[in-house]
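User: Could you walk me through two proteins back to back? I'd like the raw sequence and the structure tokens for each, with a short line separating them so I can tell where one ends and the next begins.

Assistant: Of course. Protein one, sequence then structure:
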Amino acid sequence: MEKDLLMQTITAIFHGADQHDWPAVENALADQVWLDYTSLAGGQPSRLTNKQIADAWASFLPGFDKTHHQLSHFEVDLGGSPAKARFSGKADHFIGAASWTVEGSYDAEAIQQNGRWRVTKLVLHLVNQSGDLSLPAKAGEVMKNKTAAR
């Protein structure tokens, strides 16, 4: 039961991102999260607030026409605090007929707060990216143009 609830919380982060439901993303994340996407984007891992993560994704992901995240192969260990989960992820991003796909595995940690799971750590281990690798820059341009038009 608890394993399922933890997997649902993790899934809510990515489903929320696909649906642009930023409050759902924030609610599935702890107040402070160790976020490490360096295997994909370079830079350094960061400790961010749930709002900072949701805001960052909200300023980028809507630049795509659509995104779709698929999570699978969950391995959950509830034996310690925090709980740990490892899973596979595939993210498809679309602009028009072009697509960019990111595949990898994730390590996550979560704690229970107020009777529900909240993710405290999310680390992507990039395995492969394929398709139009210029799509992230194009999505960034779309968002820059949307912001400038306001």
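----
Protein two, same layout:
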Amino acid sequence: MSDSGNATTRRGIFDPAFFHVTTLFFIWGFVTASIDPLVPSVRTVFSLTYAESLLTQFAFFLAYGIVSIPAAAVLKRLGYPGTIIASLAAMALGCLIIPLATYAHSYPFVLVALFIIAGGITQLQVAANPLAANMGSPEGSHFRLTLSQTFNSLGTVIAPLIGAYVLLRGGVFAGAAINAGARDATLRNVDVQFLLIAAVIVLFTLFLWRVRKGLHPVDEIEEMQGSPFAAFGSGWALFGAAAIFVYVGAEVAISSLMINFLHQPSVLNIDYSSAGRLLGFYYWGGAMVGRAIGSVVLIRAPAHRVLAAAAFVALLLCLVVTQSAGHMAGVAALAVGLFNSIMFPTIFTLTLERSSASAPATSGLLCMAIVGGAILPLCAGVVADHAGLSAAFWLPFAAYCLIATFALISPAKERA
């Protein structure tokens, strides 16, 4: 990277507008990771199978498949500031619906609320990912988006820790017989979690409304040209979307099953609350540390090589999980988070660089591919029900194989 590129990158980092955009990554990371401790909670309260409990992730990530392309059109119409404000409002609305769903003791209603929350996050990602990447020099895009994703990881670290304390204590997790009173107590804990999230989102929306004029990327007018469907005509955008699909699916499948996996007597034999804390500290914490380190490494090393190395180690760790038990399996599963760290932002920026479509159109397609977080975890839940939780790690193994392939051939790909 040239000196001028470095200078532009540094100005982008210390620009207050870049900081404001980066806080968005924290918000949606926190909300997304709050679903992980919700999985064992609803599984116990509503007496669900693994596959049924993972419908929480299905409903949440299904929104990416449905909302992303319309979100690209909304971005063209409202611009970045308007899209961000509308997205946060939708997220807050979904959080406020959760207490209505738990009051009705309706699991399907919970799923509807999660879909609404995820619809807001989808719209937010369509705007915020290219915005963070393009608030400075093109040479610094990998660095900027990975740095922003580090704060996303901070949210995913904190959320399971709070969720383990709020959602996985008392009620049905108190150790006594599970009865109507215990179920009600756990559902009230769910209400507390999502009402607090709604309050934080509302406060943050009011703050961003005041600073909305600074939320614009470089060359915004050029970015807004073209159809939101243009990315479907770009081979590289489609390949990048496939990589995002399997990456998010693998990450979410592992995190969704992790608490139950670590709880098993054959692995760590710990209680649900302790397993939730380990999920936050080590799986999501590893992703945060990895992104912090990766944002520095990506200044010096080619992005495709860093991505290939991370994917190769992640697939080896999944292989270890399928072939071992006890502490070795538990440590290997948790360590995957460290190597997940740079995958999403690196795949995203490699695709933006090579796509022949505009940034909003390409971002819309890539965010639509996040629907992998709905499909792969559900498949992993089915495998877990029939073959055990360890066997479910074969799906992430296959996903990381595809990501490694994406990384290895990316230097040879031209803009298409």
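The domain at 3-412 is CATH 1.20.1250.20 (Growth Hormone; Chain: A;).

Let me know if you want the two compared in more detail.
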